[in-house]
Amino acid sequence: HAKNAGRNACRMFKRGMNELIEKRRELEVDLEIALQRGEFELYLQPRVEAESGIIIGYEALLRWFHPRRGMISPGNFIPVAEASGKIIRLGAWVLAEACKILDSIDGHISVNVSPLQFRHADFVTDLADLLKTTGADPHRIELEITESVLIEDDKRAVQILNDLKRMGFHIALDDFGTGYSSLSYLSRYPFDTIKIDRSFVNNLNLVDNAQIIVRTIIDLGSGLGMKVVAEGVETTEQALFLAHAGCDELQGYLLGKPRKLGEITREIDPAIATQLRNVPKKLPEI
Ligand code: C2E
Ligand code: MG
Ligand code: MG
Ligand code: MG
Q1: Nearest protein Cα to ligand 1, atom 30
Q2: CB proximity list for 76: less than 8 A, separation 6 or greater
Q3: Residues with a CB atom less than 6 Å from ligand 1
Q4: Distance 198 CA to ligand 3 centre (A)
Q5: Which part of the chain is the EAL domain (predicted)?
Q6: How many angstroms is it from 213 CA to the middle of ligand 1?
Q7: Average pLDDT by stretches of 10, the chain with 286 residues
């Protein structure tokens, strides 16, 4: 009996795996078609200066409009694009599109760069070409990479980052606190910005330790001369806590959801802006 049950479970597992592999393959084929047909769009989410409530830029977030399945979020297809190598072309499209968008927005644009894309031999030279052909100002572009891009004692990563910095790009460390981060990364790599992962921000009101962790990340980043951005800000309480703790910029549904270029948020809710401006400035340490 038990043996039968085991065999059944095994068969179910195999069927599940096959379905998963089949789904992935299907998505991969669809991705290729989507690249050819141009089924992608960049949505833009505002990034807000905490002490003024002013929108100082936007993060570009990729959306796929699948003809049958509707809108697909990047969490569902970026891993497939990464595993199949298609992220190289997709990422190149994202960067080119971001350069175009710069003409239509104020402030800067942040672009997510995947690990494979970052490591690709032509990444830096392709970017240089892109700047030349589009005339885009790299000082208005921030490249977001995650900790998973970096490994211990990574001379090549340092070189790529330094090249990008020399070209004028800003560099942000995305999802800070979620990877295998080593604090020494922060001083070893030339980040302009660190983005506190939204899981910490989400937990601010629930977990006591989250407040301490967030304060510490803010102090650490600021102390190292970096801009600190909080992701996933959904409530006024979170925004005010972060502003009070000295966080430089806020991003999240409270301030503005990702929207297509024609419908982006140009100003945040004035009531929230007023509250942000009334937060007392953090006193300098003595
Ligand atoms: P990310 O770079 O950390 O982007 C932030 C994600 O949080 C976005 O999800 C955004 O829509 C979501 N978000 C923003 N505010 C809130 C909030 O208040 N509450 C909640 N619950 N979520 C919020 P999205 O657009 O689904 O993107 C997911 C991830 O996919 C991104 O995380 C990024 O790692 C990746 N991604 C997006 N676009 C690109 C791209 O063009 N290239 C690459 N390589 N990766 C991308
Ligand atoms: Mg990001
Ligand atoms: Mg993030
Ligand atoms: Mg991310």
Answers
A1: 74
A2: none
A3: 45, 61-62, 73-75, 78, 91, 94, 112-114, 144, 174-175, 198, 231-234, 252-253, 258
A4: 7
A5: 24-272
A6: 22
A7: 76 82 89 97 98 98 96 94 95 98 97 95 97 98 91 84 97 89 81 95 86 94 96 96 97 98 96 97 72
